Amino acid sequence: MKFAKVVPESLTAGTFAEVYDDIDSMLRGKVVQNENAEKQRITHAIIETAVFERVKFTKSKLAKLELTDVIFKNCDFSNCDLTNATLYRVEFYDCKLVGANLEGAYLSQVLFDHCLLDLAGLNKLDVRKTQFVSCNLKDANFSDNNLRETELVDCDINNLMLYDTSLKNLDLSSCRFATLELESKTLRGLTVTEEQAAMLANSYLGVRIKY
């Protein structure tokens, strides 16, 4: 599903460093490609109607980042501080967010497609109409979240932590996991396969199922 309202042909070439030149720390209408933007330090940067391709943000501190109508392709956000970010109509394709911290972020109409989010801190999120498609979320922390119209499709979520998060209307039947970290009280309304249900029943309800 497409969310970002971006026409790449209408954008001009730019660099992430331009965000420092604007009084409001804003970058708009740009295509940024093949850039090393590691270890940046900026609070409340605003990026609108932009495309980033093969940009490396590793270990950057981008707290309170605001993104609207932005597409990221093959970008690296590993170990980034993205706490309290606001993401509205944003798409990530083949991006790396291993160990990234998005605690307290607001996500609305966001797509993560073939992304690596292992060990990511995805806590205290307010999530609306967001999709994780063919992503890795192994050992990620996905706790204390408010999930509305959130989809996980064909993802590896082994050992994903889901504490203090209602799983009602969440469908994990296409996902892969041997174990999850959660509370039995949050299982009501969760959709899983028969095999997954047996595993969860054994782990959290002490029920043994014979076949």
UniProtKB/TrEMBL annotation:
Ranges in a coiled coil: none
Pfam families to which the protein is assigned, alphabetical: Pentapeptide (PF00805), Pentapeptide_4 (PF13599)
Database matches in Gene3D superfamilies: E3 ubiquitin-protein ligase SopA
Protein name as annotated: Pentapeptide repeat-containing protein
Species name: Lentilactobacillus senioris DSM 24302 = JCM 17472
